[in-house]
Amino acid sequence: MKAIIVDDEKHVREAIRLLVPWEELEINEILEAPDGQSAISLIEEHKPQIIFTDMVMPVMGGAQLLEWLHTHYPSGKTIVISGFDDFQLVRHTVQYGGLDYILKPIDAEQLRSAVFKAAASWRQDESERQRGQQLNIEMNQIRPAYWDKMLSNLITEPSGFDAVTHSFASEFGLDRSVRECRVAILSLDTISSMLKQKFESNMDLLFFSITNICNEFLHASKQGIAYRYWNSDDAILVLLYGQGSAEQIMANIQQGIWSVLRSKVEIGISSVHAVPSGLILAYTEAKNALYMRNLLLKDKKIHMYTGQASSLPPLICFSDYAEPIHLSVRSGSAEQIRKAVQLWIDAVKQLDVIDLGMLELWWQEYTVLRNRWLNEWFGDQYPDIKIESDSSRFQLPIDKDGSFSVILWQEQLTAGLIELSKQLLAHQHQDNNVIFEIAKYIQNHYHQDITLQEIANHFYLSREYISRKFKQQFKVNLSDYLSGIRLEKAKLLLLNPNLRIAQVAEMVGYDDEKYFSKVFKKMNGFSPNEYRKVNQP
């Protein structure tokens, strides 16, 4: 904290310096002035919290200084120290915010009490000021989100419009009598890739920036209001009022966004509708204007709703080109994958019109086929397969200029399929290793009572998966494979005439001699005894 002592008598200033416990009050800077005029200059520069002043001084007295402080520096806490016991001076002190009036010669205890009271009063005021500032900061942070929510609700619940028209008028300066408007949608899914990277960690800041740019143009002419639409991940809505050209207004906004952020956004604009009953329809029209736009027209960024469906382009289906892609992924060859994808892209490049609807349809086809392939290749293990370059949600491939790029789409699709192929090869390799480990396990434990469930538990795989993969690899069921090993071992043991049939059966994993003999005869065409007689040395 800081303090200033204003008195034309030097010995009084020195006395105050000696009597006040500055360190205890955490006052680390003490200023001095011989009159009110000099004090004003120091107060404006240093902003002291505690002010001691005499009432009768040359140039400017304490009464005038109190009046100046009351108007220009009310946060300071003033203590008057005067040699005049005058009611008018005391009254003037109280009237203009002085905390105490101490007579000379100074009473040390009275001065100490007054200073402590002044310091406590300033700290309390400062705490309230900081609380108020923090509250203002929080309100300013909440305010945009509050209005975004209120305005977003009007699209789905337009009946609430009349209840907030007065707030709109006072907050945004809009004419409450306006009963017609358009809706414009700014789609942030088409901002440039560089801008997306810049704001990747804080997309809220990007929404805030673009909304502010829009409102700078709209508020200046009272043409409407822009806000973040809470029911969409990547849209800013603009309610356009007045008689101005909607296309020209949005063109100006488009240019403003380009000037500040060096990126353009796609904008869809509805036709005129009644407020509030037509807001839902206006929003739908603006959305359709964006949805049906021809993505191949790179220079056209503002799209007016015309009410007419776009002319249908020649219909091509991704599934018609899926088989070469399917085979190329299985081949494991990146070159074959690139060639297969190129066939599809060559067909796409023949089209004069590509809109979002077509891209989403192709993406759905690809997703269905890809899931089918995953099930075919990985079976019940495919949920563990992670293809980082593929996404469950369709994302428009946008180049650095913010335009749809067939080439970029081709690169993304190819990269995803190459990664899938790598995963398939790795999985097949892992499959083969696991199946051979299972075969080795059976060879080492054939003499025990092992079951398919026991093997499944041991290798942390499902019974069905093991059965299917084992049959694919060895062309025989696992149970027949186990029986074959047991019976081959039994043939060797039967050559020993000292071993009984029951002993041989037990040694190869059969507890029941009769069952062993039955299986042996079924597999070899003769019983164990017959085999022993024929093959005795």
The top-level CATH class of the largest domain is Alpha Beta
Uncertain stretches of 5 or more adjacent residues: none
Oligomer: single chain
Question: Which structural category fits the helices and strands?
Answer: alpha/beta
CATH architecture classification of the largest domain: 2-Layer Sandwich
The fraction of residues assigned to DSSP E strands is: 5-15%
Q: What is the overall number of helices?
A: 20
Total tally of structural domains: 4
Q: Give the end-to-end Cα distance, rounded to a whole number of Å.
A: 114 Å
Radius of gyration: 44 Å
In one word, what is the shape? elongated
* Count of DSSP strands: 11
CATH superfamily of the largest domain: Reverse transcriptase/Diguanylate cyclase domain
Instruction: Could you tell me the CATH topology label of the largest domain.
Output: Alpha-Beta Plaits
Q: Report mean pLDDT, rounded to a whole number.
A: 86
How much helical structure, as a percent, in the residues? 55-70%
Strand count, sense and barrel status of the largest sheet are: 6 strands, mixed
